[in-house]
Batch of 2 targets.
Target 1
Amino acid sequence: MSDTTHDELTHENFDFRGFDLPDLKAVTLNAANASGKGPKGSGPDGANGDTIGGAGKAGKSKGGNSKKSEKGGKAVAKEKNEKNGVDKKSRPGLFTPMELRGITVRNRIWLPPMCTYSVFARDGRPTPFHYQHYVSRAFGGFGMIIAEATAVAPEGRISPCDTGLWEDGQIDAWRWIVDGIREAGAVPAIQLNHAGRKASTGCFALGYEGQSVPEEAGGWPTVAPSPIAFGGLATPRALSVDEVHGIVGAFAAAAGRAVTAGFQAIQIHAAHGYLISQFLDPLCNERDDEYGGGLTGRSRFLIEVVDAVRGVVPEDMPVLVRVSATDWAAGGWDLDQTIALAKVLKNHGVDLVDVSTGGIVAGVSIPVKPEYQVPFSEQVRLKAEVPVTAVGLITKPKEAAKVLSRGKADAVEIGRAGLRDPFWPLRAANKLGVPVTEAPYAPQYVRGAF
Ligand SMILES: Cc1cc2nc3c(=O)[nH]c(=O)nc-3n(C[C@H](O)[C@H](O)[C@H](O)COP(=O)(O)O)c2cc1C
């Protein structure tokens, strides 16, 4: 495979819409904080002893105490006691299957959600492009294929060309993709999203890239917790409490449609500055009602979405949440709050936390380098005792294997390297000396094995 140097890959390539508007003091990750040795209660809510998701809520969660999720947590806790690196033999490899509730994922190399902005008809329905894109990567050996940020409401699309699951008419367009992924041996998952103040932006097919699309060109007014714009995008309108409840319902309805389409796992997008992370982050959420204020209030929307989604999906279906572990901005969302949140998510039946960073506030500087987000997944895994995935410039098979063998994550996600090489997992198997018989080849491709 072509191992790309990190010089070619910058944070600007990401889909974070992190437009370069230096309106905030840039911060780099403090090494002490990343290693979990930061000052206790240094977060705005840690200091005042605020907690998220009361016991009553946790009790209400349908799947919160499932045996499987307890099992995951205990395994993490056991490793914590054994110290990193001591019990290497019990740690999984890239090709070790992984159980999540009722499903088994064939390996720990997953395709993260990546928008393709390719619904040119603007009706939210995936097309033959999406079929070949996802199914080819399932044949390429990925264990879980997490389909791109898919809107739970038309006004929640990042661009007019996003996929959607906001109406029943979109279900059939997903079915053949889901079936194709499953037939190729991978687990089909879907990321559900509402883009909030980062909605109605342009894309390659439409133009207006990095800008708000004007209404006359098919754009729409945006909404957010508070009327604060992201960078140079249009200023959003603050959502009413009734509207917040409506969006919680939209997430649940979209999750129900995903189940009908055959998806085997749901990922809730609470990262990268889209609506849910706008609520989480004190720099975007200035509400003085029950959805703002301390960590409890700012997390309420996400926890309600999790409960609502858990309430409609089967008991044995995994629910994942993607978070940004920091917004890389002074006074904003940080690792301490992420760990506190992850503990609550676990109690509400979330089976795995997908740990990313950034995208929430514009104009911050991010120390992008290979595996730069791995310290965050490691800390969330150890401190919240919840299974996690690591993502972000993991491009080399040996390095990816080390992330797992050192207990820094339970699975890795290969994004842009998986865009340029749909067969990344099969190529990795070859590089790591995994026999063809144990690599995730579909029978049709064995004779052309690496
Ligand atoms: C083209 C593109 C589209 C993306 N779209 C999404 C998305 O829909 N949802 C999401 O959570 N992250 C999205 N991301 C972020 C990726 O999932 C991933 O976290 C990021 O690319 C870092 O991983 P990598 O270095 O392996 O590419 C996108 C990234 C790229 C490059």
Target 2
Amino acid sequence: MSNTNAPTVYTAADATGDYRDMLLRLMTRQLYAETATAEVFGRSIGVAPTWREKHLAAEFALEEAQHSQMLCNLLADLGEDPESLIANRPAAASFWNVDLDNWLHIAVFNFTVDRAGSQQIMEYRESSYLPWAEKMVVVLEDEEEHYKNGVENLREFSSAPEQLGKFQSVYNDMLPITLKRAFGRPDGPDNEFCLRTGLKRHSTEDVINRYLIEMRSYMDPVGLKFPPLERFAAENVHLVDSTRQILNSLL
Ligand SMILES: [Fe+2]
Ligand SMILES: [Fe+2]
């Protein structure tokens, strides 16, 4: 399902009423994700095993900080105070449920969580709120590099069966949380509102499925599986049938 008929909103002053409220919710969610991710990569400089990895972590931390700053500016234009929004965000480690002192956790994070964010940003790049859509072009270019490295990390870990087993076990914990934190509920009135107003062009169900199909294309060749469905149930992740089918295809 996609909708491209909603009117474009060109300036902050033109974002009003329910549209503005929903815009603020989506942008705050992205602000949370970008700032928490900046902190994860910043901390990971210390735990990365090689200089090449440390340098990449530093580069990614800077880029995530730049993404965060773009959101701060967009929110300030809408009359919000970004500092007070960020002050209400849970700590980065608990927000993503990741152990910041563990390189394996960082590698799984890079492959899993960071990419889920990109799939949301692909929607925002096409958003009816033009000031936001325009800024997301460069963000997505950075994110392509982050994901390339995430896939690279997966390939390295999966070259030894024992390492792949460890990667799998962290992934089993992280993917259900990611679906919940990065995408929210796959149905309901908010979803319909976003489609009607063009704040998003695809339903959350479609975005989640697109993400999982992309993930599967990198998992399948190296032997990584989706987490057992019980793991999603344990985290109270609501899965629609189409999503369940994708997960079932590589358990
Ligand atoms: Fe980012
Ligand atoms: Fe990223």
